[in-house]
C-alpha cells in the first residue's frame, strides 16, 4: 500500500514557485498604489492654474517640488527592478515545468504512441547499442530506456503504468516542501534559528508595538489625544475666548513640541531670532506664567503664527519652521471647533460651563486669517494681489465706498478702472482674474419635520430638519450678470426704462440680504396659496329621517373641489342651480341624494389619497437621497484657494450651522462641508424648543479659507403645541388574555341581540 513521503527541495526547483508568488504579491499592489502620478499631468494642472494662482506661495513651492524632486524617479526605478525580478523568476519557473510531466515510455524511447512490438524492440536495440555502459554510454539514461522498454513489453509493468502511471506500481505520495534542504541541515540550524528569532521575536513585535503606540496617541483626524484634552481644558476654563487667548491655546498644542513630534524643531538660533520678533510684534503676553504658554515650543509657535498674520519677513531657518506651524493650524482649529461643539451640547444635559458661540466663531475666523495671512482688523481687499495698505484710501473714499469684495464687484467697470488707476493694465487684469475666481454662494433653505403627517407643522420638542441647498458660482459669473444691459423696445421705452431702473437697483444689491423683498414675495405667495387651498367641508347635519339635504350636499361639493377648470366651474354652477330647484320636488326620493353624497365622498377620498401619495413620494425621495449620500464617498478636492502666504495647497471648504444670535447659543452642530463643487444639499437637525411661540434663528455659512464671504440668513420658527395622544384609541384596544377575548365576544353578542330586538319593535 502506498504511503506518504515529505521531502525538502534538494534541487531548489519548488522553492522558485514560492519565491515567484511572494514577489508577485508584493510587486503588483505596490505598483498600483505607489506608482507616481504622471508628471506631465501635474505640470499641465499647474500650468492651468498659473494665471490665477501664480503668485501664491503654495503654487511656487509645488512647482519647485515637481521640478526638482527625485522621489518619483526612485519609486519608478524600485518598482521596475521588482518587476524585473518577478519576470526572471517566472521565466525560471516556466523552464521547470517539464520536470513534472507524466511518465511516458514512448517519449523516452522516441516512439510514436501505439507503435508495434517489433518497432519497440528494434528501437530498444538501437538505443542499447548507443547508451549501454559497456559501450561507453550513460548508465542513468540506459536505465531509463530499459525501464521504458519493460513498461511496454512486460505485461505486469504495462498494467502498472496504465493504472498508476509508473511501471514499478503504486509508490509513496510525495509532497515537496518549497524550501531548500540546507535550511534544515544540522550545520545551519543555529543560523536559521537566529534569523527566525530575529524576524518573529524582535522585528515583528517592534513594528506592531510602534504602530499600536502611535495609533493610541492620535485621534481619527491625526491629532494627538493630549492636544484634544488640552483644548477641552482651556475651553471649559475660558468660555468666552477672545482672539489673543485663542492664539495662545492653539500654539500650545503638543504637535509643536519636539518631544511629541519629530517634525518640530528647537534651534540654537531661536534664542536670538525669536526675542527679536517678539520686540517687533509688541505685546504677545510673553510674561504669562501659565503652563504651557511660557514653554519654549509654545512661545516660538505663537510668535511664528503672529508673524504670519502680520506678513512679516523671517529668516530662512525660521521660515521653514513657520511653514510647518502654519500648515498644522487648520486641522488643529477644526479639532477645537469639534471639541467646543461637543462641550456645548454636553453642557445642555449635564449643566457645566461650556464655551460660548463667540469662541466657536473665533476659531472659524482664525482659520480664515491664517489661510490668508491677515489680521482680523485688516481689510478683506488685501487678499487680492498688488493691494497694499496705502492703496485702500482710494477704495474707501466717499466717491466709491468700497470696503468689501462684493462692493468691488458691484462697481461699474469704468469706476473700477478709475479707482484702481494705481495699477497698470497687466496688474489690473490679474486682480480681476483673481477676483473672478472667488466663490459666490447662494443658499436655499427649507424647513420641515420629517417622518410626520404634517411636515410643515413644528411642535414643541420635535426634531426639525433644515435642508440647505448650496449653489456655488464664481464671482466672474455674477459679475457678468450684473453687467448685462436690459433691452428696450419701441413704444414701451418709458415702462422699460422704469423696469430697467428697478432691476438696476436690484442688481446693485446682489450682495445684500433682500429681506424686505423676500418678505413681500413670501406674503404674495401665501395669498396665492390661501386662495388655492381647499376649504374644509362643513359638518353634515342629519335630519329626522337620517338623510342629508340636497342644497347642503351641493355646497359641500363646490367648496371642497378647488382645482377644477373654468369650464367645469361653470358647469358646476348650472348643476347647482338645477339641483337646488329639484331639491323641493325630490325630497321624498333619498336614492338620488345618496348617490350625490357618495360621489362627493369619493371625490374627497380621491383628493386626500392624492395628497397622501404626493407626501409619501416626497418622503421616500428624501429618504433615498439621504441613503445615497451616506453610501457615496465624495472627493474632498473642490477648488484650490487663492492664498498668497499659505504654504500648502488648500481646498475650499465651508462651515454651515444654525445659531441663536440673540442668546449667543449654538442650535445645531456645525457641518463641515468639504464636497461643495457646484451644488450640495446639507441637512441640519435640531430639537425644537419645549415652549410654544415664535423664535428667530440664523443660518450661518462661513468659509474656512476666505475673509468677507460669510453669509447669515434669518430662520423663523413658529412652534405649536404638541398634539395630545389618544388614550382610548380603538386600534390599540387589544385584549391581553383569552378570558378577555371571550368576555369581549360575549358582550358583542349581547349588544347585537339588543339591536335586533329594537329593529323588530
From TrEMBL:
Record has Membrane as a keyword: yes
Domain of life: Eukaryota
Biased composition (Basic and acidic residues): 574-602
CDD domains assigned to the protein according to its UniProt record, in alphabetical order: DnaJ (cd06257)
Biological processes annotated in GO: nervous system development; post-translational protein targeting to endoplasmic reticulum membrane; SRP-dependent cotranslational protein targeting to membrane
Location within or outside the cell: Endoplasmic reticulum membrane
Keyword annotations of the record: Chaperone, Coiled coil, Endoplasmic reticulum, Membrane, Phosphoprotein, Protein transport, Repeat, Transmembrane, Transmembrane helix, Transport
Pfam families cross-referenced by the UniProt entry: DnaJ, Sec63
Biased composition (Low complexity): 553-565
Acidic residues bias locations: 603-615, 735-761
Bilayer topology annotation: Multi-pass membrane protein
Segments crossing the lipid bilayer: 15-35, 70-91, 190-213
Keyword field contains Protein transport: yes
Basic residues bias: start-end ranges: 516-534
Any single GO CC term annotated in Swiss-Prot or TrEMBL for this entry: Sec62/Sec63 complex
Domain J: 104-165
Residues in the signal sequence: none
PANTHER family: SEC63 DOMAIN-CONTAINING, TRANSLOCATION PROTEIN SEC63 HOMOLOG
Function: Mediates cotranslational and post-translational transport of certain precursor polypeptides across endoplasmic reticulum (ER). Proposed to play an auxiliary role in recognition of precursors with short and apolar signal peptides. May cooperate with SEC62 and HSPA5/BiP to facilitate targeting of small presecretory proteins into the SEC61 channel-forming translocon complex, triggering channel opening for polypeptide translocation to the ER lumen. Required for efficient PKD1/Polycystin-1 biogenesis and trafficking to the plasma membrane of the primary cilia.
Protein name: Translocation protein SEC63 homolog
Source species: Oreochromis niloticus
Amino acid at each position: 500500500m502506498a504511503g506518504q513521503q515529505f521531502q525538502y527541495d534538494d534541487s531548489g526547483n519548488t522553492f522558485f514557485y514560492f519565491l515567484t508568488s511572494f514577489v508577485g504579491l508584493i510587486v503588483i499592489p505596490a505598483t498600483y498604489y505607489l506608482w507616481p502620478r504622471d508628471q506631465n499631468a501635474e505640470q499641465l494642472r499647474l500650468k492651468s492654474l498659473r494665471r490665477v494662482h501664480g503668485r501664491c506661495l503654495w503654487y511656487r513651492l509645488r512647482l519647485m517640488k515637481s521640478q526638482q524632486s527625485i522621489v518619483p524617479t526612485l519609486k519608478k526605478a524600485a518598482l521596475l527592478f521588482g518587476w524585473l525580478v518577478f519576470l526572471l523568476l517566472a521565466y525560471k519557473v516556466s523552464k521547470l515545468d517539464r520536470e513534472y510531466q507524466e511518465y511516458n515510455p514512448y517519449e523516452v524511447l522516441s516512439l510514436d504512441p501505439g507503435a508495434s512490438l517489433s518497432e519497440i524492440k528494434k528501437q530498444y536495440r538501437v538505443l542499447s547499442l548507443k547508451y549501454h555502459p559497456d559501450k561507453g554510454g550513460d548508465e542513468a539514461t540506459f536505465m531509463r530506456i530499459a525501464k521504458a522498454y519493460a513498461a511496454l513489453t512486460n505485461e505486469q509493468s504495462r498494467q502498472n503504468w496504465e493504472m498508476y502511471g509508473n511501471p514499478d506500481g503504486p509508490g509513496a505520495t510525495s509532497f515537496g516542501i518549497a524550501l531548500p534542504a540546507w535550511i534544515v541541515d544540522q550545520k545551519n540550524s543555529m543560523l536559521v534559528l537566529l534569523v527566525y528569532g530575529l524576524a518573529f521575536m524582535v522585528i515583528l513585535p517592534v513594528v506592531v508595538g510602534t504602530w499600536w503606540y502611535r495609533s493610541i496617541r492620535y485621534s481619527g483626524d491625526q491629532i494627538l489625544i493630549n492636544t484634544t484634552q488640552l483644548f477641552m481644558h482651556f475651553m471649559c476654563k475660558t468660555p468666552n475666548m477672545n482672539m489673543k487667548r485663542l492664539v495662545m491655546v492653539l500654539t500650545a498644542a503638543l504637535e509643536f513640541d519636539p518631544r511629541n513630534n519629530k517634525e518640530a524643531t528647537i534651534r540654537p538660533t531661536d534664542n536670538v531670532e525669536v526675542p527679536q520678533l517678539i520686540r517687533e510684534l509688541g505685546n504677545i503676553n510673553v510674561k504669562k506664567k501659565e503652563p504651557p504658554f511660557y514653554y519654549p515650543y509654545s512661545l516660538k509657535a505663537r510668535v511664528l503664527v503672529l508673524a504670519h498674520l502680520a506678513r512679516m519677513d523671517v529668516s530662512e531657518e525660521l521660515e521653514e519652521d513657520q511653514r510647518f506651524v502654519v500648515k498644522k493650524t487648520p486641522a488643529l482649529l477644526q479639532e477645537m471647533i469639534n471639541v467646543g461643539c461637543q462641550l456645548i451640547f454636553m453642557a445642555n444635559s449635564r449643566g457645566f460651563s461650556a464655551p460660548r458661540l463667540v469662541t466657536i466663531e473665533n476659531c472659524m475666523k482664525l482659520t480664515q486669517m491664517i489661510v490668508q495671512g491677515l489680521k482680523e482688523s485688516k481689510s478683506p481687499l488685501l487678499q487680492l494681489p498688488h493691494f497694499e495698505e496705502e492703496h485702500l484710501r482710494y477704495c474707501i473714499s466717499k466717491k466709491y465706498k468700497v470696503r468689501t469684495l462684493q462692493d468691488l464687484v458691484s462697481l461699474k467697470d469704468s469706476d473700477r478702472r478709475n479707482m484702481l488707476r494705481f495699477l497698470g493694465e497687466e496688474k489690473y487684469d490679474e486682480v480681476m482674474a483673481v477676483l473672478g475666481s472667488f466663490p459666490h454662494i447662494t443658499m436655499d433653505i427649507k424647513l420641515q419635520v420629517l417622518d410626520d403627517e404634517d411636515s410643515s407643522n413644528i411642535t414643541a420638542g420635535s426634531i426639525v430638519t433644515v435642508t440647505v441647498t448650496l449653489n456655488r458660482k464664481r464671482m466672474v459669473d455674477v459679475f457678468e450678470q450684473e453687467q448685462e444691459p436690459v433691452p428696450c423696445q419701441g413704444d414701451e421705452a418709458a415702462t422699460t426704462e422704469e423696469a430697467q431702473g428697478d432691476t438696476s437697483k436690484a442688481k446693485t444689491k446682489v450682495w445684500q440680504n433682500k429681506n424686505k423683498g423676500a418678505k413681500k414675495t413670501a406674503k404674495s405667495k401665501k395669498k396665492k396659496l390661501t386662495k388655492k387651498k381647499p376649504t374644509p367641508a362643513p359638518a353634515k347635519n342629519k335630519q329626522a329621517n337620517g338623510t342629508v339635504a340636497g342644497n347642503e350636499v351641493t355646497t359641500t361639493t363646490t367648496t371642497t373641489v378647488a382645482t377644477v377648470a373654468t369650464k367645469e366651474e361653470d358647469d358646476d354652477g348650472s348643476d347647482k342651480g338645477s339641483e337646488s330647484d329639484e331639491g323641493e320636488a325630490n325630497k321624498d326620493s333619498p336614492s338620488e341624494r345618496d348617490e350625490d353624497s357618495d360621489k362627493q365622498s369619493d371625490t374627497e377620498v380621491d383628493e386626500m389619497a392624492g395628497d397622501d401619495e404626493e407626501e409619501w413620494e416626497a418622503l421616500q425621495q428624501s429618504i433615498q437621497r439621504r441613503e445615497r449620500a451616506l453610501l457615496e464617498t465624495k472627493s474632498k478636492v473642490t477648488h484650490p484657494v487663492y492664498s498668497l502666504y499659505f504654504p500648502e495647497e488648500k481646498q475650499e471648504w465651508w462651515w454651515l450651522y444654525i445659531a441663536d444670535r440673540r442668546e449667543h447659543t449654538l442650535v445645531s452642530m456645525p457641518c463641515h462641508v468639504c464636497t461643495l463643487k457646484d451644488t450640495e444639499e446639507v441637512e441640519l437637525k435640531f430639537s425644537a424648543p419645549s415652549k410654544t411661540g415664535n423664535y428667530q434663528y440664523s443660518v450661518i455659512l462661513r468659509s474656512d479659507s476666505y475673509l468677507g464671504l460669510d453669509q447669515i440668513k434669518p430662520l423663523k420658527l413658529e412652534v405649536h403645541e404638541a398634539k395630545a395622544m389618544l388614550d382610548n384609541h380603538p386600534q390599540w384596544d387589544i385584549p391581553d388574555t383569552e378570558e378577555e377575548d371571550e368576555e369581549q365576544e360575549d358582550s358583542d353578542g349581547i349588544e347585537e341581540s339588543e339591536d335586533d330586538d329594537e329593529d323588530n319593535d
